[in-house]
Amino acid sequence: MRTEAVDRVKLVFTLLDANENGYIESDDFEIMAQRVLRAATGSGNAAKDAMLAAFQRYWTALATGDTDGDGRVGFDEYRACVLSPERFDDTIDDFAESLAVLGDPNGDGLIDRSLFVALMLAIGFERENIDALFDAFGPNDSDQITVPTWAAGIKDYYAPDKADIPGDQLVGKSTD
């Protein structure tokens, strides 16, 4: 497991911990899901429903990693779950596809920077790092990226063996 991967999931853990108590609980996922759905201007109900379901599946998968049975997930439990491809790949694949599609309300396969930024700000990432990530994805002349590019980037973010990926921009690390 690479330190870059641990740094990436540590950041997501802090963002998911909406009440900042040092643990992730089901309520944190409800709060996060609602923030993301509010930012999904223009997205249809089907895309929003899929995103909400993906957030719920994410929590369900994490809850299986609650090794001490206290109904919440600490960072060590979180890291062990999300950086275990055999346990989490299907969950993150679903989450990645749902989030990327949410960013494409007109269904043309392209995500505008403005909506990408709005969704990522709703998750809690810093604006400067969001812009660096979008740029690392190689936007077209109309300042758009493809749905598959973003989905693949999300999947790579959770890969324990990946380093020097665009997602490292979110933790303030250059991939140059």
Question: What report would you give on this structure?
Answer:
This protein is mainly alpha-helical and 176 residues long. It has a single domain (3-165), classed as Recoverin, domain 1. 60% of the residues lie in helices and 3% in strands. It has eight helices and two strands; from the N terminus they run αααααβααβα. A two-stranded antiparallel sheet has the order 1-2. α1 (3-16) crosses α4, α5 (85-102) packs antiparallel against α8 and α6 packs across α7. It is globular and about 50 Å long. The mean pLDDT is 91.
Walk me through the topology.
Layout: H1 3-16, H2 26-39, H3 45-63, H4 75-82, H5 85-102, E1 110-112, H6 113-123, H7 127-136, E2 144-146, H8 147-157
Antiparallel strand pairs: 1-2
